[in-house]
Amino acid sequence: MGLEKIHFVASPVALAEEAMARLILRHGQSPLGEAEVIVALGGDGLMLQTLHGTDKNGLPVYGMNRGTVGFLMNEYAEEGLVERLGAAEAAVINPLRMRATRANGAIVEALAINEISLLRAGPQAAKLRILVDGRERMAELVADGVLLATPAGSTAYNYSAHGPILPIGAEVLALTPMSAFRPRRWRGALLPKEAHVTFEVREPEKRPVAAAADSAEVRDVIHIVVTSEPAIAHRLLFDPGHGLEERLIREQFV
Q1: Following CA atoms 222, 226, 122, 182 in sequence, which dihedral angle do they give, to the nearest 10 degrees?
Q2: pTM higher than the cut 0.90
């Protein structure tokens, strides 16, 4: 496909901003409403931020690493960008939708591409009840927290918490505890992508909990429902042979 109308975005750091300035001199800067593709210059944080901005316009995003980790980014090069865009492979990702009820009754909704995480917000461990599709699966998890990760996010926070890496095409989500105290040996679960997962916070006054959808945090939550959002499809572009599927496999052998 020919992708020549490019809209560039960059992280607010000199390395990324200087790269964007040079690329705009070469290719111009198409307005977002006329662009065929977004090229993001930075790290994974910028990629997630950019993808969240494509909920309505549906534009594909091609990242080039001008940050640190860059798991979701391609190698940076200024030459042959249009050719690379034309040959790129697409990975389609559906986000998670969080509906969180706070202690004051307020309801907050947010989307997550990587994961929804619940974390203790005080000195004591959180106490959580977990239901899947309305059926109680764990009456009480005592832990620093728990997260529900997509395949795209399975190598991020989920992997650091000793959760499994999921193939990008897997129709499953990873439910992973963080520093579980009880049940002490529980390592988490794999759930169908279509599952409705509910978390109820026990003793919220004594053990406050914060919920985060990627980087969007909601404090003092008492009830959280998480579902996959099939109506939204984010498209990431990767150089041939270096797609997200290959990266997820490679990550398991390092």
Answers
A1: 100
A2: no
| Nearest alpha carbon to residue 165 among 244, 221, 227 | 244
Tens of pLDDT along 159-191? 999 999 998 778 999 999 999 999 988 999 999
Instruction: Note if 144 is an active site residue.
Output: no
Residues 6+ away with beta carbon under 8 Å from 37: 3, 5, 6, 7, 59, 60, 61, 62, 85, 237
Residue found by looking up tokens 């940050």 in the block? 67
Candidates 44, 133, 144, 214; catalytic one = 44
Contact 93, 150 (CB under 8 A): yes
Q: Residue 113 in contact with residue 236, Cβ under 8 Å?
A: no
CA 3 to chain centre: 25
User: Residue 15 burial by CB count (10 A; 0-12/13-18/19+): exposed, middle or buried?
Assistant: middle
